[in-house]
Design a protein that fits this description.
Length: about 400
């Protein structure tokens, strides 16, 4: 590949880039190129998440997350039905440990209702019918529309769908490396001239944006999510999804139990401040940027109490005992021997508004001339992606402004 020209250039072939490509094709656009730095799909967040199709519970009603999550859930389920992809209609319970959490449950219920989600506050008898091995303080929240998918099945299907359309070319092992002029991208395989550029680079979205002079007011902090599993013979202990009451002022939902489409039950993920954007192991994925990231984390530690709480509580969950204690709070029966390690680990690339030293809670889109930057596509961006893609295409590419 050398000195190509394309109509729309998408940087990053995760769920956000792929669903935008599909939406563009469905809206009549052609000559779309996706550049993806990896050889295959799903190497980062989109292939490493919990696979939960969230149902619009947690998000502040005026947020993009609230606008896109439930609709995204419904669109993705419909896509899965059309393509014969497995969806486990599990539902989900959120359980409280004490009176304070029970009060937050009520707040979550009110938010969920405002967001149009189908939820019930249920008593302990109903909770036991749904999830016999869990407990809650007084009441629990039940979400009807939460479901579970295998994210890799969806990613592969999207690739088949968009490549079959003949409107999209995917260039694997091709990294965006900067601009070679106005509307010309420099990549590891040559230059590509474009009419429109869409940045969906996940953990590198800020770096790509900076090449366009956009988003310098934000810095990125990676959070590592490690998972463990229930031993196979013990998977029957959990029927669907069991979640704790989160601190709704933080973007993390807490260690939870999720039954996958194949019946395995995963426990996690943690939210441990990491030292690299792809720091999946203890040291693997760390590079020269580790010192910078550490400095950012230190600055946030001293200025932001919510971050400090996370930074103090989460790293100890590398130790089995602390991880186990967190999980055990959610269920009646769980022995240390029921839990085994897993090689599943993901990184949440979290944007921080550096002037305010606050974690950005919502998705963020910045348009600058011919470029559109999708920033902070954190959870539930997998769930939301198909509706989020409509928003990007209608508002920023077709300029229909339907979503205002
Ligand atoms: C542990 C964990 C659990 C989660 N659980 C859920 C869940 O249950 N439900 C849910 O809805 N969401 C969940 N999420 C969030 C969800 O996975 C992400 O919001 C979503 O996958 C983000 O998609 P993306 O396309 O923006 O990013 P990615 O999947 O990271 O894709 C970005 C792509 O850009 C490529 N790229 C980066 N830089 C360049 C470059 N310079 N040139 C070319 N290509 C580049 C990368 O290789 C990558 O493939 C979870 C996330 C994590 C980490």
């Amino acid at each position: 590949m050398k000195n190509l020209r394309t109509n729309i250039l998408i940087c990053g072939g995760g769920i956000v880039g792929l669903t935008i490509a599909m939406e563009l094709v469905n809206s009549g656009y052609r000559d779309i190129t996706i550049i993806e730095k990896e050889e295959t799909v799903g190497q980062h967040a989109s292939g490493r998440n919990s696979g939960v199709l969230h149902a619009g519970i947690y998000y502040s009603p005026d947020s993009l997350k609230a606008k896109f999550c439930l609709q995204g859930n419904l669109l993705m389920k419909q896509y899965c039905r059309e393509k014969g992809i497995r969806v486990f209609e599990s539902g989900k319970v959120i359980v409280a440990q004490n009176a304070e959490e029970a009060a937050t449950l009520k707040e979550l219920y009110d938010r969920a209702v405002k967001n149009g989600a189908r939820v019930d506050l249920i008593d302990e008898n109903r909770l036991r019918e749904i999830e016999p091995n869990t407990k809650s303080h007084g009441m629990a929240l039940y979400s009807h529309d939460t479901a579970v998918v295998d994210p890799m099945e969806i990613l592969h299907s999207l690739i088949d769908t968009i490549t079959a359309s003949k409107g999209v070319t995917i260039s694997w092992s091709t990294s965006f490396a900067g601009l070679a002029g106005s509307n010309v991208a420099r990549t590891s395989k040559g230059t590509i001239a474009f009419e429109k550029f869409i940045n969906t680079a996940g953990a590198y979205c800020d770096k790509v944006a900076h090449a366009f002079g956009v988003g310098h007011e934000y810095k990125l902090i990676p959070f590592k999510g490690i998972y463990r599993k229930l031993r196979k013979e013990k998977a029957e202990m959990v029927r669907g999804n069991i979640y704790p009451v989160p601190n709704i002022r933080n973007p993390f939902l807490g260690i939870h139990f999720t039954k996958k489409v194949n019946g395995d039950v995963y426990i996690g993920p943690t939210a441990i401040p990491a030292l690299g954007r792809e720091n999946y192991g203890i040291v693997s994925g760390m590079d020269f940027e580790a010192f910078d990231i550490l400095a950012r984390e230190a600055a946030l530690f001293f200025t932001n109490r919510k971050f400090r709480d996370v930074a103090l509580a989460e790293p100890r969950k590398y130790v089995f005992k602390y991880f186990f204690d967190d999980a055990k709070r959610l269920v009646n029966q769980l022995e240390p021997s029921d839990v085994v390690s897993s090689n599943k680990v993901g990184i949440r690339p979290q944007l921080v508004d550096w002037k305010r030293k606050e974690l950005v809670m919502d998705f963020l889109v910045i348009e600058d001339g011919a470029s559109i930057h999708v920033l902070n596509a954190i959870s539930p961006a997998f769930t939301s992606s198909m509706h989020f893609a409509k928003y990007i295409v209608q508002k920023y590419v077709s300029k229909q402004h339907q979503f205002e």
